[in-house]
Amino acid sequence: MTVLIVGAGGFIGRHLVAGLRAAGHAVRPAGTDPAALRALFPGLDPVRADYATDDAAAWAPRLAGIDIVVNAAGLIREAPGRSFRRIHAEGPKALFDACRAARVGKVLQISALGADAGAETAYHLSKREADRHLQALDPTGQRLNWCVLRPSLVLGPGGASTALFTALAALPVPPRLGPGDWAVQPIHVDDLVRIVAVLAAYPGPLPRVLDVVGPEPVTTDGLIRGFRNWLGLPPRPFVPLPAPLLRLAAGIGDRLPRSPVTSQSLAMLRRGNTAPAEPLVAATGIRPRPLAAQLAALPAPRAALRTARLDLLRPTLRWSIALLWLWTCAVSLGLWPLSDSLAMVERVGPTGPLALALTIGAALWDGALGLALALRWRPVLTGGLMLATMAAFTAIISLFLPEYWLHPFGPVAKNLPLAVATLVMMALED
Question: Is 305 contained in some domain?
Answer without folding.
Answer: no
